[in-house]
Design goal:
Blueprint: H1 2-9, H2 11-16, H3 19-39, H4 47-57, H5 61-94, H6 96-111, H7 114-125, H8 129-153, H9 157-165, H10 170-208, H11 213-222, H12 226-259
Helix pairs in contact: 4-12, 5-6, 5-8, 5-10, 6-8, 7-8, 7-10, 8-10, 10-11, 10-12, 11-12
Length: 260
Amino acid sequence: MNALFNILKGFPRYLWSGWGAIASIFLFIAVWDVGHQVYGDLILPAPKATFIAAWEMLQTENVWQDVKITLHRAVIGFFLSVSLGSVLGLLAGLFVTASIMSRPLITILMGMPPIAWIVLAMIWFGMSDETVIFTVVVASFPIVFVGALQGTRTLEGDLKDMSDSFKAPLWMKFIDVYFPHIFSYLFPAWIAALGMSWKIVVMAELLSTSDGIGAVLAVARSHLDTTSALALVSILVGSLLLIEYLLMEPVKREVEQWRN
């Protein structure tokens, strides 16, 4: 409860510190507008036209339904990959043999193109939610696993010896010594897995389902409607930014402050 209170208390300060991120977004939009002026509407529609199209889409119930379906699939796949990757990575990091044996398997998983997993999942699960969620999990899991593994394997022996010499309780060792160090490796892996989940879910939907943002993107592609395609991408990226900066980043800042 204290950690949650500190997060809420420091939230205004966190928002104020986000002006740098906002400035970078505006810079990106400015470069986007320059690209529009060079290449024209068919290749790269203007940011204003794209955002207007996105706003109009959000006024329709069908788009909201597709957004909810995509977010549902992405969130389920993300949490499954985070849960499995964190637990198995921590366990593998505790044992040298497990760490060595897991390396070639993780290399295979990370080297496998997502499109190949989508094709296999379509054969195994058909045109269903399971295809999309499975692809998200299998593509994001190795990222989280490696982060958890590295965090566990790099624990400093001096810190362990110090906590043992003071005969600290096990829960105190975990909270004050082990967790902050492991979290510094885990959290970037979670952020990377979050971005991967959003990218993979759209790709899988585009190829294997008839609903969701990916399916709507497939329709826009068939009509050569670049404005609608970019508007859908903007909606998806906007939801990702909201989740990362309004939910996950404040938690990260609180944990890092607590660790220091």
